[in-house]
């Protein structure tokens, strides 16, 4: 299998969000010849949706994904309606920046609930409602399974198998998954389930590394090559299925990469993409 195509590298803006505002991140991607970007909604709001879209277009960047929608479960009907309204706005924003997909972190247990089965039912129902809107306007939705440590508060869909099951139930039209290796590298059914997903369902591929030891389960992701994930094997597997999308670097790193010069971080992303992806 060939080396990764450097033109497919994309930067999730979380990777340098502590050092740079979104306009500086866009300029940095252009300056470092990183051709893809995946912005977060709060950063877009701060810069302005129209200006964000204009800057992305003028710098000829591809938007590999828009972060994020989801958080479907609610303690009552009013909370679920609020989430529905916000998710439709997220779809509209994703369209405005010409994103390849809207990434969904689906949500965990609402309130003081201990009913994870009920939370997953709420996710399925909320997704179904959002699909009625997103399919009509043509914005694909990408379920992002998160590591089980986040099942209670962030995402009660935790494996690729669960994501595939939801896609089976709701249909492939405009619905798939974002394969984030930080969350899925450990899954004993990883290769089986990405083969089941196939080219049509794999809408995003996110890369970083899992450090040993990990000092913080949210804010201590590693740069590619610094941890234990076989990133290249995963990349080769998704591309063997026909995946032609971006390799999106997404690193939350409170005490390491967020403390470094952001130009150095982007240069390292480019170098490590070639040597470890």
Automatic annotation (TrEMBL):
One Pfam family, short name:
AP_endonuc_2
Indicate the transmembrane segments per the record.
none
SUPFAM superfamilies documented for this protein: Xylose isomerase-like
MF annotations from Gene Ontology = isomerase activity
Could you confirm whether the keyword Isomerase appears in this record?
yes
Q: Which UniProt keywords apply?
A: Isomerase
Is Isomerase among the key words of this record? Answer: yes
Start and end residues of each Xylose isomerase-like TIM barrel domain: 41-263
The UniProt entry, under InterPro entries, shows:
IolE/XylAMocC-like (IPR050312), Xyl_isomerase-like_sf (IPR036237), Xyl_isomerase-like_TIM-brl (IPR013022)
Q: What is this protein called?
A: Sugar phosphate isomerase/epimerase family protein
Q: Which organism is it from?
A: Phytobacter ursingii
């Amino acid at each position: 299998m060939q080396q990764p195509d450097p033109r497919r590298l994309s930067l999730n803006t979380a990777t340098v969000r502590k050092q740079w505002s979104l306009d500086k991140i866009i300029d940095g991607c252009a300056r470092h010849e990183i051709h893809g970007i995946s912005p977060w909604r709060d950063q877009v709001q701060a810069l302005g949706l129209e200006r964000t879209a204009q800057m992305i277009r003028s710098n000829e960047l591809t938007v590999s994904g828009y972060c994020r929608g989801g958080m479907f479960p609610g303690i009552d009907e009013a909370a679920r309606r609020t989430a529905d309204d916000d998710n439709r706005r997220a779809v509209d924003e994703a369209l405005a920046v010409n994103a390849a997909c809207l990434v969904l972190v689906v949500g965990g247990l609402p309130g003081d609930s201990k009913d994870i089965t009920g939370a997953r039912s709420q996710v399925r129902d909320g997704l179904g409602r959002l699909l009625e809107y997103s399919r009509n306007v043509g914005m694909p939705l990408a379920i992002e399974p998160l590591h089980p440590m986040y099942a209670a508060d962030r995402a009660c869909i935790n494996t690729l198998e669960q994501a595939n099951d939801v896609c089976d139930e709701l249909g492939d039209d405009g619905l798939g998954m974002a394969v984030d290796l930080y969350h899925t590298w450990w899954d004993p059914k990883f290769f089986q389930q990405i083969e089941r997903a196939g080219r049509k369902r794999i809408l995003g591929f996110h890369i970083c590394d899992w450090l040993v030891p990990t000092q913080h389960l949210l804010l201590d992701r590693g740069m590619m090559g610094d941890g234990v994930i076989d990133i290249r094997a995963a990349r080769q597997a998704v591309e063997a299925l026909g995946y032609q999308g971006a390799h999106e670097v997404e690193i939350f790193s409170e005490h390491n990469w967020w403390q470094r010069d952001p130009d150095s971080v982007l240069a390292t992303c480019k170098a490590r993409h070639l040597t470890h992806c």
